[in-house]
Amino acid sequence: METETAGIAASGATGGCLCGAVRFVVAGPIGPAAYCHCSDCRRTTGSAFNVSIGVPVTSFALLSGTPKGFTATAESGNALTRHFCPDCGAPLYTSSPHHPDRIFVKAGAFDDHAVVAPAHQSWMRSRVAWAGIDPDLPAYDRDRPAESGA
Ligand SMILES: [Zn+2]
Ligand SMILES: [Zn+2]
């Protein structure tokens, strides 16, 4: 088992939580990502929408840490368990008995954002008006100068 995980780590895309306690690897090619605008994803991400990548559960391996899970029945009627780091709270992946062969890894948890290639967006009926970023908003390379340190 350890050798198998080591093999995956050598060839796969790695990721983890904010504090670094939880680390994972996904073997093989990373498939398309999807935006989800549902209200539960908005709550759990604390942002406008979720971006995740469905991967075969057999290609996913935890390298360290033990995520905590929270299960809720989604508007779709499916029970979804969202897994997150119990120390820093970072969302990591979602699983469901509705699709036991796949898990949905949070796109932002990957170390290399280049592996993320969104292909569609779901639950548009729940999308908030500020989900898209107005290109005319003032933009800064770092913190907004007047508010740095906030
Ligand atoms: Zn953490
Ligand atoms: Zn969602």
UniProtKB/TrEMBL annotation:
Pfam families: GFA (PF04828). Keywords: Lyase, Metal-binding, Zinc. GO terms for molecular function: carbon-sulfur lyase activity; metal ion binding. SUPFAM superfamilies: Mss4-like. The keyword Metal-binding applies. The keyword Zinc applies. Gene3D superfamilies: glutathione-dependent formaldehyde- activating enzyme (gfa). InterPro entries: CENP-V/GFA, Mss4-like_sf. Residues 13-124 form the CENP-V/GFA domain. Belongs to the Gfa family. PANTHER family: CENP-V_GFA DOMAIN-CONTAINING PROTEIN-RELATED, GFA DOMAIN-CONTAINING PROTEIN. This is Aldehyde-activating protein.
